[in-house]
Design a protein that fits this description.
It is found in: Mitochondrion matrix. This is Citrate synthase. Pfam families: Citrate_synt. By secondary structure, the chain is mostly helical. The protein folds into two domains: 125 residues, Citrate Synthase, domain 1, CATH 1.10.580; 91 residues, Cytochrome p450-Terp, domain 2. Helices cover 66% and strands 0% of the residues. The chain contains 13 helices and no strands. The longest helix is centred in the last third of the chain and has 23 residues. The radius of gyration is 21 Å and the shape is flat.
Length: 269
């Protein structure tokens, strides 16, 4: 609880020093909730942005234990390290670009798309652009998931928020139109196990709409949110007396056997 109480202040101080005038984050308002106080410290007072932040912080807090940041906190915590060390380890994992930069990569992708075809595009133009993008050896960021095989519910709730509060935002319209055509294109391509959008396909667009355009800060927001899940899971792990994690490993001989089996299987196909 001590760490959760301090994180918004730390994160807001970083934001104000990097992107604002470096002024104090002010005093905590006991009449406001965790998210509202965080927004106030960041310097945002739009009620809709506060509502968005509540949504964002909840849906990014935990997503089963297999992703890098959540699993790292479980792993370090299983050694009975304290919550500060466990969460710090999780943030080291989140700092990796394959984990923590996903929604930023979506915005870069959308910016390039708009630069190529503008906002007044047809569905055919959009489909052709996505196809050409894939044929160049690139991926569509924000689509696919290691576990899910349907549209990410976290994407859906962000979409519902946008439909209600910013239906005419140009980038949201682009995200919506991509949602219409991209899954079919990915299925037609035949490589994607899950052609549906994930949480990162939407979150950056919402933050941009409300004026938080500093993309390099998005990972910090993710980290504040992830603390809710990681730290509560740490309490559960201690309460259930879960053992020290020790993943299985393979010897060189074992790896060679796996490689030979895979080669044989490919030959038979």
């Amino acid at each position: 609880m001590n760490l959760l109480a301090k994180l918004p202040t730390i994160a807001a101080t970083i934001y104000r020093h990097l992107y604002r005038d470096g002024s104090s984050v002010g005093v905590i308002d006991s009449n406001k909730d965790w998210s509202a106080n965080f927004c106030q410290m960041l310097g945002y007072d739009d009620p809709l942005f506060v509502e968005l932040m509540r949504l964002y912080l909840v849906i990014h807090s935990d997503h089963e234990g297999g992703n890098v940041s959540a699993h790292t906190s479980h792993l370090v915590g299983s050694a009975l390290s304290d919550p500060y060390l466990s969460f710090s380890a999780a943030m080291a994992g989140l700092a990796g670009p394959l984990h923590g930069l996903a929604n930023q990569e979506v915005l870069v992708f959308l910016t390039k798309l708009v630069g190529d075809i503008g906002h007044n595009y047809t569905e055919k133009q959009l489909r052709e652009w996505v196809w050409n993008h894939l044929k160049s050896g690139q991926v569509v960021p924000g689509y696919g998931h290691a576990v899910l095989r349907k549209t990410d519910p976290r994407y859906t709730c962000q979409r519902e928020f946008a439909l209600k509060h910013l239906p005419n935002d140009p980038l949201f319209k682009l995200v919506s139109n991509l949602y219409k055509i991209t899954p079919d294109v990915l299925l037609e391509q035949g490589k994607a196990k899950n052609p549906w959008p994930n949480v990162d396909a939407h979150s950056g667009v919402l933050l941009q709409h409300f004026g938080m355009t500093e993309m390099s800060y998005y990972t910090v927001l993710f980290g504040v949110s992830r603390a809710l899940g990681c730290l509560s899971q740490l309490i559960w792990a201690r309460g259930m007396g879960l053992p020290l994690e020790r993943p299985k490993s393979h010897s060189t001989e074992g790896l060679m056997k796996l490689a030979k089996a895979a080669k044989s299987s490919n030959t038979q196909q």
